[in-house]
Please model this.
Amino acid sequence: MLDGDRLWNDLLIHAGFGAKAAGSAGDHATAQWIAGELSSGGYELQSIPVPVPVFRARRVELVGKGVSLEVYPQPIVTPTSDQGVEGQLAMVHSLSDAREAAGRIAVVLLPHARHAAIWTSAVGPLLEAVTEAGALAAIILPFGPTGEWVGLNSYADRPFIPLPVVIGRPLDLPQYAELAAARGLVRLYLVGDTETSDSPTLIARLIRSDRWIVMSTPRSGFFTCSVERGTGTAGFLEIARCLPEAFPDHSLFLMNSGAHELRFAGTHAALDLAPPPDQTDVWAHLGAGLASLARTEIRGGRMLEVADPNRICMVTPALHEAAYRAFGGLPGFEDPHEILSEAGELSTIVSRGYKKAFACLGVNWSCHTKLDLPTEVSPTLLLPVVEAHWRLIEDAVRITRAQATENRKTKRYSP
Model:
């Protein structure tokens, strides 16, 4: 029933809305488009407001002798004054270096990885350590495959540390090292205003019985996020179009959550509206980076026409064997895993008591960078992953029906 051409077209439409930070114009435009698609499919729509802080930058840069380096504001932003923060740079590689940041601007160098969140990476303890040491501000250099800025998921209700924090470009390391070695004064500008905006969570319902199928996916993210968010959004919409006809005896509850990069705030805002766990046959969560092209890293590397295996399928025990069948042959997904805490929203979902739930996610080569564009994925890689989601939804419903039949037989013939 799934339409591969329509799936790919939705990914391209998603890319056309540009950057999708929570509460931004791109986030709002994407939400309006998704709401329209779901409404045209016969769903009843509800929008849950999720207030988020949005930083409107006026000047964001690091200025030193003969050099100006572009930096990216790390949300939630603690701005500087219009005069910025002045001090020497201190290069911080480890916790033992943190004391060198006292009275200086800390340059926190992260080990090479595909970084995504503050609280699940090495940066959290380092930021806390330089704050305790008395740093004036922090510049994070998140070394990874691209050498570009990497936005980091953080808290929804407060800055991670009470200092101005920005993301630097690891490719600019030689300039940072030169400025630090010279021990001259530099000035960090993180100037702008913080406003309250909204990153709504959309709820779509189609009520037909007391048995439910639930599907969810996040919407907001860093930059264009074509792989990170676009693959899940396209899959979410395509499955949403097919569910009503394929499962006429089920009610449907769909959630498209905002404020994802602010510790999943949009999901937390709407979970109380979901159907009860004992009436839910399956909860399918389409997470980040469902499919992307693999890249080599030899002498600049090149893109390959195969799937990047840096992805995972997490399932509850009741769906483990079915997930093996559904995702067989898809690198990274073909060996289903137990649920990891705060690796996306699934751990929060299953903590509510949902017994048949799964989520697929990946951290692609360009995740959370400005390079996360449609060129990082292909139709031939995306469609099989969405089809596997569909197969597992079908199997979960079959399992539930078989269990219900067996329970009725046991009850009927029990003495």
Notes: The first helix runs from residue 4 to 15. The first strand starts at residue 44 and ends at 48. Residues 5 and 82 are 50 Å apart (CA to CA).
